Amino acid sequence: MINIADVARHAGVSTATVSRALSGGHHVSPATRLRVEASAAQLGYVVSSNASSLASGRMKNIGVVVPFLNHWFFASVVEGAQQALQRHGYDLTLYNLTGGLEARRSVFEHFLLRQRVDAVIAVSLELSENEVARLHALDKPLVGVGGPLAGVRTLTVDDLAVARLATEHLIALGHTRIAHIGGDKAFDLDFNLPTNRRFGYEAALAAAGIVARRDDFRPADFTTAGGYQAAKQLLGRPHERPTAIFAASDEMAIGSILAARDLGLVVPGDVSVIGVDDHELADFFGLSTVAQFPQQQGEKAVEVLMQELRPHPESRTGLNINMPFELIVRGSTARPMV
Amino acid sequence: MINIADVARHAGVSTATVSRALSGGHHVSPATRLRVEASAAQLGYVVSSNASSLASGRMKNIGVVVPFLNHWFFASVVEGAQQALQRHGYDLTLYNLTGGLEARRSVFEHFLLRQRVDAVIAVSLELSENEVARLHALDKPLVGVGGPLAGVRTLTVDDLAVARLATEHLIALGHTRIAHIGGDKAFDLDFNLPTNRRFGYEAALAAAGIVARRDDFRPADFTTAGGYQAAKQLLGRPHERPTAIFAASDEMAIGSILAARDLGLVVPGDVSVIGVDDHELADFFGLSTVAQFPQQQGEKAVEVLMQELRPHPESRTGLNINMPFELIVRGSTARPMV
DNA sequence: CTGAAAGCGCTAACAA
DNA sequence: TTGTTAGCGCTTTCAG
Description:
Two copies of one chain form a homodimer. With 338 residues, chain A is α/β, with parallel strands linked by helices. The first copy, chain A, folds into three domains: 4-56, lambda repressor-like DNA-binding domains (434 Repressor (Amino-terminal Domain)); 61-157 and 295-323, 3-Layer(aba) Sandwich (Rossmann fold); 159-291, Rossmann fold (3-Layer(aba) Sandwich). Chain A is 45% helix and 17% strand. Chain A has 13 helices and twelve strands. In chain A, the strands form two sheets. A six-stranded parallel β-sheet of chain A has the order 2-1-3-4-5-11, sandwiched between helices. The first copy, chain A, has a six-stranded mixed β-sheet with strand order 7-6-8-9-10-12, sandwiched between helices. At the A-B interface, helix 4, helix 5, strand 2, helix 6 and helix 11 of A face helix 4, helix 5, strand 2, helix 6 and helix 11 of B. The first copy, chain A, binds a DNA duplex (16 and 16 nucleotides) through residues 1, 3-5, 13-20, 23, 27-29, 32, 47-48, 50-57.
């Protein structure tokens, strides 16, 4: 392995100059910088990140923690973050908490603290105060994606507004019997997104002077199968069948479409269906939805972090950063038949 | 930050002893080991991985390279690898090549060579000889998942056998008009899996004395939408409609099921459909399939690597390691109606 | 603008 | 079994 001394010798300068020339290039004359760069390239020199980190305290590596990876949303966030980091010359070290409580503890007690990362991005994770405190104690910037995390800079979409928008779309089309498939309690524990979306739905109804019937809400588990089952119950009722369903995720919305079909109902003729996410299958199913952009969220998280990692964090944004969302109307929503 | 010297002082031993006690614990008396461990715990000491790596040459970190993350199969492999690595006390640094050629070069020229990783796992990636050579030159073990990579230890499922098994299942049920939806040329570039699966299909037919009709094969892009379109073509033919479809992925198989339904055909009454993967939606759609176990593949890749990373690699397995697969029969396949 | 030299925190000979 | 000590390769004052 060829090291900084080799380059210094080859370029006829000191190792200090090589270091300076290769990192930022401040306080080095253009001429020598060029010479050093040429030597480095010629010799195929690559800095040893360990030595560099040890000496400088910068790791050029950030930790990303996700609950699981095996899910469209999380995978997209990570992918976005990875690409953004790569542009900045950073590595991404991935931790996923699928392994349960033990894995979680081990991540926080050993891995994140090994001084491997400059900062941490926590995706859809409700960190305990203890966990947050630990990170803060180490002076490691932390940004959250999609939770609300006490005292932590977090990127969130306004779930209430998202749900309101979706519901308003249905109301504007003329629907008055609008059911909602939301998350069950298990999901509320880790991020109270289901509750927020339900509130948004109810707020939109209320604003339109519609009273939400209690049995027009059904909890499910955010999967296609869960949405299917919930929709079957909703649509199979002999009386007062809803003419529209707002599902809190596209996967549940797709389940609803399939449930409607299996009951012989036509979408959107008999039931309109709208979801949230703009999942990769949404287009195929012609599903109207409120898109959120997970990849972009990952990228943005990185930008925020880079900001914070700079010596003098200028223009720090507020603690809560609102991410965009957008109504996408496809074929699954239409005016109700009279 | 509290360091090894602090622990040494607290435990009344030298830093060398602390180092030994905390890593493996060889050549240390049980008594002092206990004492050191107690001190470390009490002080909240965590080794600086940089210093440790710099001194030892071991990074305790492995690089995983995937073409994209945003896909069930890759995400599952990574998840499996991550969990296995965590058990071994290793970190996982993720590289994805979604960014195109430039990103790819940058990964290989800078990131992987920064001496950050002890080894590399390449998932479904056709590495160039140059790229492989580079890694070998650095003495970095490399294991592939799901390609065949020249000169590299690779985990593969026998795609030919997988396809044969699926097709044989249909033949055994009595089908003779069996269509195949495979991958198009674009996919063959990166891993010639589509070709292998097609060969397996043809081999099974040939063994049963069935001649494969040319127009019973349709290429698609491994997505649900692609499978849907291909199946529409296959099933919409006025004459000699196939009674069964073998799709090279579950997503295409699901597309086929939906296409059949839209044509008013009943699955499996009018058409049987079988896929490959055991995708998370397979169960929901009652899809018969040949399961492969991506998570397990990720774990296995780690085991192989750990083996190789040990001082004296015992019992090295062959270059090609066959991964298991399994026929799972659900409701989408049945005897053809006579 | 450039060089000399002191660490960064740990591991691994080597000695004891 | 334990301690001493010389690096690992780089960054960063501090001089010049």
